[in-house]
Amino acid sequence: MTSQLAVQGNGEPLEIATEPLSSISAEGSSFVNASGEKVNLRGVNLGNWFLIESWMLGIGDIPDQHTFFSILDVRFGAEKREELINLYRSNWITARDFKLIQGFGMNTVRLPFHYSMLIDKTEPESYRENGFAWLDHAISLARANNLYVILDLHGAPGGQSVDQPTGKIDSNELWDSAKYQDMTVNIWEELALRYMDEPAIAAYDILNEPYGEGPRSGIEDILKNLCERIYHTIRATGDEHVILFPGTQEGIFFYDSPTEMNAHNLGFTEHFYPGIFHAEPSIEGHARFISDHLTGRHELLQTWKAPFLVGEFNVVFNHTGGDRMMRHYWDLYESYGWAATMWSYKLIKDKPGVEDDNWYIVTNKNPIDIPDIRTASIETIEAFFKSLGTMKLSADEQLLEKLNTLKPPRFELPDFPNPLRTAPKQDVLKGWQLNNLADATPSSGLELKSDGAFKLYAGGDDIFGKFDSCGYLWQPVSKSFAIEAEFTSLEATERFAKAGLMLRKSNNADSPMLFFNAFKDGSIALCYRKAKGQFASETKFEAKGWPIQLRIDYQDGVATPSFKQSNESWHQLSPVSVEANTAGIASVSGDLNQIATAQVANFRLSSLNSADKSL
């Protein structure tokens, strides 16, 4: 029998009948069962269960799990803290939640967990005696309710980013520590040995959001090597579960295809939050995100013949489409053959009931007193944790209705043309060279006009962070020069696309540089990397519209930028010290799968001690 709609209006689950689970594997770009039939994995994250993100518990001023645990340790001791956390875990998610999730028409849960649940921090080489008991418990409940599980290492040893989901803000030590990398590999070896024969596990999501210090962190080579180590370690145990390699904030383009890696049952995963991180918060922003990003990702994965998990996504805002947009994404992902798990299942808060803008499927129905764990008595904290398993819940009825109706709600998105994927021209500007820094893709191109203007076509994902990935039209320069250009437009779909004047010490991607640029909205920024491999800083200026004239005067190691917008007068900025051996124009699309087009006129490089060298 197939599952039926199974949620009452009060958010309580009804009993439903289902078919038994079949093991999942990868076949081309699809997930399939043991009979080779395609399976649409559609589900939700069980966030805040095995890794506490206190904002989901209504305690937003405690920054992370590390702080949460430390407060309890100091107040009550480590042993009592362990008892309290076990009490919390016994109640945050229970059997009723798995039944409720199934009633939303879902068949999968992604299970985030922190590594410390498995490893004794006082003896990092040893596993906790009952360390796997909670994972066993969760998998058992999922299996009993015919839900697949995706195991998600949400917080790795040392931390894989500076963000709260790792369990400790600003840790981010995984990338520079062989010890932490070895521990991460060993954790997956232990998990594989334990769960290799478990059909309820659909996939291993081996590392959540490996974002490092943020965009342009330069961790791709380390991440790729770590993921390949984990893959081979899991396979060496005899475990054949699907393994998912995670993308960075720049995507998955730095990986090789499974065929090139001689790997099987291998897929990839990313998180998409258009309107929050990836696109403007509007229906048009979502439409552009689909056109600009998702279509390209789908094409890549079809070429790679690899399955894909959207491990986290949420529209959040009602004014950007809300539940209708959520249904649209789920249907779109299914049409691509992608698995998808929204963030997140449950959140509790002072204000009861479902709100228009939200991150959850269920929340507390009635007002609750959320204790301050820094001052509340242990009895009060225990009572609060116990109440989490029995409190009345409100379900997002509108989302429930949209997910379970056979005919999708009428919802039309604006139509946008597919972005430019390759440079249409490869003209040559005499005396100048065009390079792709950091092997930026798609490759750059140039289209010369009869009046001396030109179009610079460029890919790349950013000029920022520790290194730059962009198109760069350049030539060597002396110790005294001025460079100037008029930018009449920037045609791009990614809002962080940019084009402008650049000075560099070298054409190495991590070189010291100064980038004086315009964004597509007409705003201006000055981006500066003082030393090799250092994180760049950026100062932005108000948008006044096109055209935009940019100029940099350079004298003995000091650059003085100036700009002019529309009919305004010139504005001179403060001087910046930078060693410049090359100068020119740089542009970046902000997406390794599409091209930005910068329209440039009146481009000239001149010596401050001689006549202009117009171009």
TrEMBL record:
Q: Does the keyword Hydrolase apply?
A: yes
Q: Name one GO molecular function term.
A: beta-glucosidase activity
Could you name the Gene Ontology cellular component terms for this entry? cell surface; extracellular region
What InterPro entries does the database record attribute to this sequence? GH, Glyco_hydro_5, Glycosyl_hydrolase_5
Q: What keywords is this UniProt entry annotated with?
A: Glycosidase, Hydrolase
Which segments constitute the Glycoside hydrolase family domain?
A: 93-345
Q: What are its GO biological-process terms? A: glucan catabolic process
> Where along the sequence do coiled-coil regions lie?
none
What is this protein's record name?
A: Cellulase family glycosylhydrolase
Q: Native species of this protein?
A: Rubellicoccus peritrichatus
List the lineage, top down.
Bacteria, Pseudomonadati, Verrucomicrobiota, Opitutia, Puniceicoccales
